[in-house]
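To whoever is on call:

I kicked off a structure prediction for a single chain this morning and the downstream step that reads the tokens threw a length-mismatch warning. I double-checked the sequence; it's 363 residues and nothing unusual in it as far as I can see. Pasting both halves so you can look.
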Amino acid sequence: MSDRLITIVRFIGLGFLEPVIRLARGEEAKKNLTEILKKIVAPIASILIFLFIWQTGSTALYNKEAAHRIEKAFNEQGQEGADAMALCIESGNVSCRPNTLPSPTQVKASFLSLLKDHKIIKADKKAFKEKTAEINKKRAEAGETLIVYTGRPSFVDQITTSLKTVFAGFLLAIFIAVPIGIALGLSETLKSSLNWLIQIFKPVSPVVWLLLVFMIVKTLNKNSDTDSSFLISFISVGLCSMWATLVNTIMGVSTVDKDILNVAKVLKLGPLQKVFKVILPSSLPLIFTGLRITLSVAWMVLIAIELLAQSPGLGSFVWEEFQNGANDSNSKIIVAMFVIGIIGFLLDRIMLTIQNFVSFNKN
């Protein structure tokens, strides 16, 4: 049973848990304790050190900003004004509290506040849906437009929108890059003819892709009343992130062992059979390496693209909080930063698990 568990944790990219499992069943206590110290205790210690440095830094910046405000009050209003400012800051009043790098405690409070807001907005949506259910039923029967909830999205809603956008863009990248990569990998003439196009468009900024997609979509969608921000966002993400998959697919297909291709000829496989039964299975490790990079790039550029396309996702959330300038805005931006990083890590783990599942890689 434990051997099966070890295989599973390795398979899903959680191999650091292996020494814990082995220690639990009494194997090589000294060796596994050393591995636990390296792979679990040391990372936890580094997290605690990071939090300590963060707390120390935020406190220093807070004190510096507080001293600046007190000095400014002294210069403008004298000692009385300086004392009043010092008392106001000490009381924690939001009107005079220094707005600088938030501490871990403030970030945690903002995270809980965002979750609380999500519950309130979710309840509002449910109440709105129940209130308009009968009216929408009649409007649907009459062929009229339904009444929809137009309130502000919650933080969780914005995360969901960003995930939908990145997955739509990722699928678009697959549908474009993999077939083209196979075609170019199979034909040296095609590859040399179109290599200039890949080398020119591969380093283009996501902002430029967004503007290009915006021009095209707005022209084609000119007479439509539907919101095109999602369409613009996911197409831009797909076009910006597909290049790693395209290059790796070309490389994987073009480096398939010639002996394997000769076997396909001996078996008289058709073109499609040759691609799906020989070339793709042989190229999967490199293709999946490209797909992992593509998904990482897609998630990374998504924030900038959503910000510019005004799509209601995490990019929009970060920009709105930056412009808002409230006392908890900085904390909420840090919350978004950690959420973006954690989701990016989880997406990479998911891709690694899928790669291990479909690949014949012996490692």
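Update from on-call: the warning came from a stale cache, not from the record. Cleared it. Sanity check on the structure: Residues 103-146 form one domain.
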